[in-house]
Amino acid sequence: MQTLHANSSTPAISRPRSARSGVTLLEAVMAMTILTITGSALLSAAMATIQSSSIMSQAVVAEGIADQLADEIQAIGFPRGTNTLPSAGTPRVAFNHVDDFAGYNQKPPVDRLNKTLGTEDPFVSTRNAALQPESGFISKFRQQVVVERLSPNLNSFDVVTSDTNYRRITVTVSYQDAAGTEIPLVNRTRILTRVEFTP
C-alpha cells in the first residue's frame, strides 16, 4: 500500500507496527547476568583495595611503634656489674639499662609510663578522645624485645651468655588479625656497643 503526502509527489512507505513494546525475558536475564558479573568484579576490586589499604596502615603504625621502642632502648646505658631485672608490669621509665628490656612483651603497646600509645598527651594526663586512635585498632598490636649479648668473631658476632660490651636488640611488632593470629609486621634489629670513657 502506498500513500502520498500532501506536500510530496513521492509515495511514503508505511511499515507494519511491531506488537512488541517492552523487554523480553531473555533480554532481562542477560542484562541481570551482565550486571551481576560486573558488580561482583567491581566489589572484589574495591574489597582488595580496602584490604591493601588496611594492611598498609597497620604496617606504617607497626614501623612507628618499633622505631620508637628501638630508639628508646638505644638511648639507654649498658649495665655495670650484676643485673637485676625489673618485675613484670614495671613502667619502662624505671628501666635503667639495655638488659632490662630482655623479654619485654607488651600488648597493647604502651609508652614509658605504661599508658597505651595514642592515649597520652605531653601536657595533660589523657589525649582528647577525638584525637585518639580507635581502641580496638591499637589493642591488636604487640611489642616484643629480644636482647642478646654478643662477642665479636672476625666479621660477625657470636651470641654468648657472659657480659660483653655488645648487645643485639630485636624489636618485633605484630598485629592480631580477625582470626586471632598474631602476624609479625616489623622487625628492627640494632647492634649496640658500650663505649668506655677515657680521662
Q: How would you summarize what this structure contains?
A:
By secondary structure, this protein is α+β, with helices and mostly antiparallel strands. It has helices at residues 25-74, 135-138; strands spanning 2-4, 11-13, 105-106, 141-153, 156-160, 166-176, 182-193. The model has no long low-confidence stretch (mean pLDDT 81).
Structural classification: alpha+beta
Please tally the β strands and state the result. 7
The major beta sheet can be summarized as: 5 strands, antiparallel
How much is the average pLDDT?
A: 81
The helix content, as a percent range, equals 25-40%
Question: Would you mind describing this structure in some detail?
Answer:
The protein is α+β, with helices and mostly antiparallel strands and 199 residues long. It has one domain (36-193). It is built from two helices and seven strands. It has helices spanning 25-74, 135-138; strands at 2-4, 11-13, 105-106, 141-153, 156-160, 166-176, 182-193. The strands form two sheets. Strands 3, 4, 5, 6 and 7 form a five-stranded antiparallel β-sheet that branches. Strand 4 (141-153) and strand 5 form a beta hairpin. The protein is elongated, with a radius of gyration of 34 Å. The model has no long low-confidence stretch (mean pLDDT 81).
